[in-house]
Amino acid sequence: MSNSAIPTVMYAISQEVLGGPEVLHEIELPVPQPGPSEILIRVRATALNPTDWKHRAFSGMFLPAPPFVLGWDVAGEVVAVGYGVTLFAPGDEVFGMLPYPHGHGSAAEYVVGPARAFVRKPSNLNHAEAAAIPLAALTAYQALIDIADIQAGQRVLVHAAAGGVGHFAVQIAKSRGAHVIGTASAPNHPFLRELGIDEVIDYRTTDFTTAVRDVDVVVDPLGSDNVMKSLRVVRPGGIVVSLLGGDAAQMASEAEKYSARVALMLVEADQAGMRAIADMATAGTLRPTVADTFPLAEAAKAHALGDTERTVGKIVLTVP
């Protein structure tokens, strides 16, 4: 697409106040222009993550008060590049995550982001599948590889294993030769076995602390109470990676009792991680599960589904 064919206005999903899905509505905004080292992407799909519906509903998160356009995951086509960009050219299909948290804005027809937050979209993925990957898979990758440095033969426990981050964590840990244990409700056990999980625990009927021991790495998206419980099953020298935060000093103090560590992480835009994830997707060792898709204009319906926190995999907005 030439610059002359890029429109001057676009549709985006915005909100003026915090609240339920009903606060979301479609607005028109100017199409942004890429600055130095940036690319302008025609968004074909963007995925929702828990951080989207939490920022929509609650104050005290990472963003200032609305109005704002949420969304961090992007899959689409480069339509213009800023000064100094050599990695991509108009027409390239890319996917990636806008810098978290302040780079939000992908719930729109066009978005600008740093060129090095993106990589080329694998040809075996459509845009909806590609959009489902970046934030959740990067979270899992950074937790397991960058922070925990998992090794073949280690025991990894993934909480909420059928969720967005969880189902990627299972696949990434298995690709590294780990023995993977997950917690999930019974209806999701067959799905997790298809992903290659070694053991799965129904959290509704079983206290995982009675069923698991000698774990090297725990990935926990549930919060501080679950982090504290998880420390009971970690071997000395092991680590719990918390994705939801909490009282860092309290967690560290508790971890000391078990000669273990707790790491509180936020996902970061990361081209090296995205390249590794894209390679896995191309090879078929990492595949996204799309729970449902909605057109951009029906973002409120998608958020309502996200609010249930009962989906398997990811919810995706497609941009016609």
- List the total number of helices: 10
Question: Low-confidence parts lasting 5 or more residues at pLDDT below 50?
Answer: none
Strand content: 25-35%
- Shape descriptor reads globular
Instruction: Please identify the structural class as seen in this structure.
Output: alpha/beta
The count of β-strands is 16
Kindly report the name of the CATH homologous superfamily of the largest domain: Medium-chain alcohol dehydrogenases, catalytic domain
Give the rounded overall mean pLDDT.
Answer: 96
CATH architecture of the largest domain, by name, is: Alpha-Beta Complex
Largest sheet: 7 strands, mixed
Radius of gyration: 20 Å
What is the CATH topology classification name of the largest domain? Quinone Oxidoreductase, Chain A, domain 1
Distance between the termini: 16 Å
**How do the helices and strands follow one another from N- to C-terminus?**
EEEHEEEEEHHEHEHEHEHEHEHEHE
Under CATH at level 1, the class of the largest domain stands as Alpha Beta
Number of domains: 2
Which characteristics define this entry?
Quinone Oxidoreductase, Chain A, domain 1, Rossmann fold, 2 domains, seven-stranded mixed sheet, 10 helices, globular
Question: Explain this structure to me?
Answer:
The chain is an alpha/beta fold. It has two domains: 3-133 and 288-318, Medium-chain alcohol dehydrogenases, catalytic domain (Quinone Oxidoreductase, Chain A, domain 1, Alpha-Beta Complex); 136-264, 3-Layer(aba) Sandwich (Rossmann fold), CATH 3.40.50.720. Helix content is 28%, strand content 28%. It contains ten helices and 16 strands. The chain has helices spanning 50-57, 127-131, 134-147, 164-175, 189-194, 208-211, 224-231, 248-257, 271-283, 299-307; strands spanning 9-15, 25-30, 38-48, 68-69, 73-81, 93-97, 110-114, 118-120, 155-158, 179-183, 199-201, 215-220, 234-242, 261-264, 290-295, 314-318. Strands 3, 5, 6, 7, 8, 15 and 16 form a seven-stranded mixed beta sheet that branches. Strands 11-10-9-12-13-14 form a six-stranded parallel beta sheet, with helices on both faces. A three-stranded antiparallel beta sheet has the order 2-1-4, with no helix packed on it. It is globular and about 60 Å long.
